[in-house]
């Protein structure tokens, strides 16, 4: 039996206190910069626009020449190649403003009569005209360090002529699956009784990437203490190590004792359901999370411990995503335990799918989110408004 179970909040706090954000920087091409976090301010190398340009279809004019124009008292301008006294030039949106012009008369306020334009409205200087640097000025700070780049941000940087940006390096996440009963995914090997396909590794790999990390998954390792030690030692260049399986209290559950031997075992056994066998520790200053082998228990531990750790390391502040919904049915929880309850979502209503069953992965595949029921609360009642954490 587990000698002492720790609370989820205390365990997470203990882990986060020993870790910090990854501050290494690297240069990346803009085409690969979506979602990356800037490691330095970005200043504009040019004016945008780089020339005065028409912001409307119409006629480029000298604003003073339209003074007093109304539908009842129009002013007539001659169509020419250069704007000036009594002259105008046809323009389309985005075109450079012709010489002599300082405004654009919209088509709606102009009537072409042969080689003359009847102006029926007055325009002020720079009306309907985007001036040099109006969007972005040369030397202006566009984005500050720590900004997470979105597609429109990258489009703006590209339009200014930038090719590369300096960003924070993604935290390296090593994923080590363990278990002699596991068979590699996507292999032709037929499952024998007692065997299972190793699915936790790919789940860890994908979530590490979604949350801002750079994952790498090792082959499956046997339940052998010496082999697992070697695997950990070979991956200590990572910023975080996730070990899948071997976390309970059986004869071949070596991960927690290896953590204690190679470094510091912070926690083994957490008051969460599912996910009680989770272990947390530090080896050579690197955090290690030992995930239970059952898929839903592994997912619960990933969300409760790995997500806040990886997002902190990756300078991500946009997660988690939470919505409020009304419970369609009661959620039963275990007193004294943080409960990871899966729910489906539709039209603002959350329907509990299953609150137990650490190995029932389909309960998560059918869920849009989960509700965390605190240790001090005995379940959630039907009709109650709850916060639903969306499953990415």
From TrEMBL:
Please give the biological process terms from Gene Ontology that the record holds: Mo-molybdopterin cofactor biosynthetic process
Q: Does the keyword Lipid biosynthesis apply?
A: no
Look up the coiled coil feature and give its residue ranges.
Answer: none
Keyword match Zinc-finger: no
Keywords carried by this UniProt record: Molybdenum cofactor biosynthesis
- Pathway connected to this protein: Cofactor biosynthesis; molybdopterin biosynthesis
Domain MoaB/Mog span(s) in chain numbering: 174-312
Please identify the protein, giving its name as recorded. Answer: Molybdenum cofactor synthesis domain protein
Q: Which organism is it from?
A: Methanothrix harundinacea
């Amino acid at each position: 039996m587990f000698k002492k179970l720790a609370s989820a909040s205390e365990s997470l706090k203990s882990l986060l206190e020993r870790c910090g954000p990854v501050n290494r920087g690297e240069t990346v091409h803009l085409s690969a910069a979506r979602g990356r976090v800037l490691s330095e301010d970005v200043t504009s190398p040019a004016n945008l626009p780089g020339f005065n340009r028409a912001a409307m279809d119409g006629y480029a004019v000298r604003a003073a020449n339209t003074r007093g124009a109304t539908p009842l008292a129009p002013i007539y301008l001659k169509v020419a190649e250069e704007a000036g006294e009594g002259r105008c030039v046809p323009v389309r949106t985005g075109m450079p403003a012709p010489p002599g012009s300082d405004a654009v008369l919209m088509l709606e306020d102009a009537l072409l009569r042969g080689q003359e334009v009847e102006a029926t409205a007055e325009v002020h200087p720079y009306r309907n005209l985007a001036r040099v640097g109006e969007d972005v000025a040369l030397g202006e700070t566009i984005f500050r360090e720590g900004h997470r780049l979105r597609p429109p941000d990258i489009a703006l940087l590209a339009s200014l002529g930038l090719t590369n940006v300096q960003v924070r390096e993604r935290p390296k996440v090593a994923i080590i699956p363990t278990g002699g009963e596991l068979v590699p995914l996507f292999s032709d090997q037929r499952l024998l009784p007692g065997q299972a396909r190793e699915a936790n590794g790919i789940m860890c790999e994908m979530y590490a990437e979604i949350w801002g990390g750079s994952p790498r998954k090792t082959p499956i390792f046997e339940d052998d203490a010496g082999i697992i030690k070697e695997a950990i030692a070979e991956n200590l260049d990572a910023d975080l190590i996730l070990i899948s399986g071997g976390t309970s209290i059986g004869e071949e559950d070596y991960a927690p004792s290896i953590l204690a031997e190679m470094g510091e075992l912070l926690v083994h056994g957490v008051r969460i359901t599912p996910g009680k066998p989770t272990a947390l520790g530090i080896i050579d200053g690197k955090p290690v999370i030992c995930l239970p082998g059952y898929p839903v228990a592994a997912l619960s531990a990933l969300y409760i411990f790995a997500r806040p750790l990886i997002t902190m390391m990756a300078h991500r502040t946009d997660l988690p995503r939470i919505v409020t919904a009304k419970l369609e049915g009661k959620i039963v929880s275990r007193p004294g335990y943080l409960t990871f309850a899966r729910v489906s979502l539709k039209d603002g209503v959350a329907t509990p799918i299953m609150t137990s069953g650490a190995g029932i992965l389909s309960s998560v595949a059918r869920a849009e989110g989960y509700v965390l029921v605190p240790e001090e609360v005995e379940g959630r009642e039907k009709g109650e408004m709850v916060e639903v954490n969306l499953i990415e």
